[in-house]
Amino acid sequence: MRRAPQRHRFYHIFSFWLVLNLFSLCPLSYAKSQPSILVIANVASHLPALTHHEIRQIYMGGTLSRKYQAVALEVGNPTRIRFNTKVIGLTESRIQSYWAQLLFTGRNHPPLEFSSVKELLNYVTKTNNAIGYVPAPVALPHNVIVVYQK
Predict the structure, then answer these.
(1) In this predicted model, what pLDDT tens digit does every residue of 12-39 receive, in sequence order?
(2) What are the beta bridge partners of residue 133?
(3) Contact, 40 vs 132, CB < 8 A?
(4) Using an 8 Å Cβ cutoff, are 138 and 125 in contact?
(5) Contacts of 140 (CB under 8 A, 6+ apart)
């Protein structure tokens, strides 16, 4: 049997290495292609920039949720899914389970839900201390400020 030349083996190894590296870069390019999330508030609320922890507290019924009204997009919305995983750090099913427990015990209510970004923006512009989230390429009204970006 004839053995492959050394150069031929090098090309096989190099092409295998190249394919592995290309596959390893795919998730990075996918993550960067998703738009970022803007957490917004009404200008009249005079909110400074919020931290990741404060936003999670507001959206998960913590102490800050008594001061600020969290609003969200409806279940299944791609922006909501990104917000829950990137900012809150939980899946939709975990969040639904958490709120079911709080509602059952009467301790708190989940954020108000809107079916579109336009409706959510409309509510935030008219309501002091309302906090919502939108995808980054959305044009914001003049009376809305960004308090967090992820």
Answers:
(1) 555 554 555 555 554 444 445 556 999 9
(2) 39
(3) yes
(4) no
(5) 38, 40, 121, 134, 146
Domain-wise residue ranges, the chain: 37-149
> Cβ(132)–Cβ(121) under 8 Å?
yes
Q: Sign of the C-alpha dihedral, residues 121, 123, 129, 132?
A: negative
Query: Alpha helix (H) ranges present in 3-108?
Result: 6-33, 52-59, 78-83, 92-105
How many residues are recorded in the chain? Answer: 150
Question: pTM here?
Answer: 0.75
| Residues 111/105, Cβ–Cβ less than 8 Å | no
User: DSSP state, 72?
Assistant: E
CATH number of 37-149: 3.40.190.10
Structure tokens given for 51: 């931290």
Six-digit token string for 105: 């015990």
